[in-house]
Design brief:
heterodimer; A: mainly beta; 5-stranded antiparallel sheet; globular; disordered N terminus; B: mainly alpha; 6 helices
Chain lengths: ~220, ~170
């Protein structure tokens, strides 16, 4: 069962009971636009100072949640999706820089291309690929051995990984449904044993134009 | 029609790049990156999803506004969604002042990080941060039945080096 189906069931159950939703999972939408579009459905975003180099920052994005082990090597990025981090470095919640990633190729032969960080030609909900050279490229990893590439001080990865998210979603569903009144202890990680598609970029913090940042992720598709 | 034109243009650009590469003299070897045609080139794209803080959209944005939220931008969040967050927090039992303070921390929906300080949720987000328990605490306060899901860590150990995320589960 896909991550989205689980969450949709949860939300339907909650709505049916008139129970206010508290938290479902990290960000697993019941949006009609995203239904059936796991490759564009962002599961999580992570932003953290590099554990291996304090001058670097790490940006990670996961999509396409709930990939079972049987499909780990056969679930791919969508070439029609632009994956972006948007970075505000002056506190106005408007992106000053964007970091873009997109794949070419199909099946087990995809390459992830990176552009930026750079100013975007359009702000907000419409977007275009940044003109100019790519800042990095890397072959998409379909196995447990991660393929990384470094260029311009930037190290990049794209491919299937364990879902880093952890949460006792099953017990939470029971609470929402009125079948339980508390979490269990110890809890059980509903996301254990499942995979996501991940994109990870480590780059010098100086490339982001400030020390205090606001970071968010987005996925976009060509307009029909 | 427009998309077709763009694809043709994109294809032409690729062919020109190939032709240009073929014209290079031997003292200037072709260097990476290879120019690969992407279907996204020269197209305007529309946002489908966005993500700042974990669970915020799912918790606080009503279902009928979810697409509007996904299509929107953080710069519009305070005007559009903050009052909804305050209302929901008050429905959870918080007083107006604390609900307003928390809603201010949650909107706009971006992941704030001060890179001069160690990264710990809500200063950025590391994979190992127990964000769900942190958020349950924010929402349910001292209610011990609901303020911790007692899943404190990932099922697979994170790597200490790039790409930091654990390897996939495979058959």
């Amino acid at each position: 069962m896909s991550r989205k189906v689980v969450l949709t069931l949860l939300l339907v159950a909650a709505a049916g009971l008139g129970v206010t939703r508290f938290i479902t999972a990290s960000d697993h939408k019941d949006s009609m636009l995203l239904a059936g579009d796991p490759a564009a459905d962002i599961a999580d975003i992570y932003t953290f100072r590099s554990p291996t180099n304090p001058a670097n920052v790490v940006l990670a994005m996961t999509v396409s949640g709930f990939i079972p082990p049987s499909e780990a090597s056969t679930t791919f990025f969508d070439p029609n999706v632009l994956y972006q981090w948007k970075i505000d470095n002056d506190g106005d919640a408007v992106e000053d820089l964007v970091m873009q990633a997109f794949v070419t190729g199909t099946g087990g032969h995809q390459v992830m291309h990176f552009r930026g960080p750079a100013k975007a030609s359009e702000l907000g909900s419409t977007t275009r690929v940044i003109e100019g050279p790519e800042t990095a490229t890397v072959a998409v990893s379909n196995t447990a051995t991660p393929i990384a590439a470094t260029r311009n001080g930037m190290t990049v990865f794209a491919g299937v990984r364990d879902d880093p998210f952890f949460f006792d979603l099953v017990q939470f569903k029971k609470i929402i449904a009125g079948q339980a009144t508390s979490f269990r202890n110890p809890g059980v990680d509903t996301f254990a044993g499942t995979n996501v598609l991940a994109i990870v970029v480590e780059l010098p913090s100086s490339m982001l134009g400030g020390t205090k940042l606001g970071v968010w992720g987005s996925t976009s598709r060509p307009q029909l | 029609m427009k998309r077709t034109a763009c694809r043709v243009a994109s294809l032409l650009a690729s062919l020109m790049a190939i032709a240009a590469a073929g014209c290079q003299n031997s003292s200037a070897p072709i260097t990476s990156p290879r120019i690969e045609a992407s279907v996204l080139m020269h197209q305007q794209m529309l946002q489908e999803d966005r993500f700042g803080l974990p669970a915020i959209a799912t918790v606080f944005i009503p279902t009928d506004l979810r697409d509007a939220y996904n299509l929107g931008s953080p710069s519009g969040d305070v005007a559009t969604f903050k009052s909804l967050i305050v209302a929901k927090l008050m429905a959870f039992g918080q007083d107006a002042a604390s609900a307003n303070a928390l809603a201010s921390a949650l909107s706009p929906d971006v992941q704030p990080i001060d890179l001069s300080q160690p990264s710990n949720f809500l200063n950025g987000r590391k994979p190992s941060d127990d964000v769900i328990t942190a958020e349950l605490h924010l929402i349910f306060g001292s209610n011990a039945a609901l303020n911790d899901d007692h899943v404190d860590a990932n099922d697979a150990p994170f790597l200490t080096t790039f790409p930091y995320l654990a390897g996939p589960h495979v058959q």
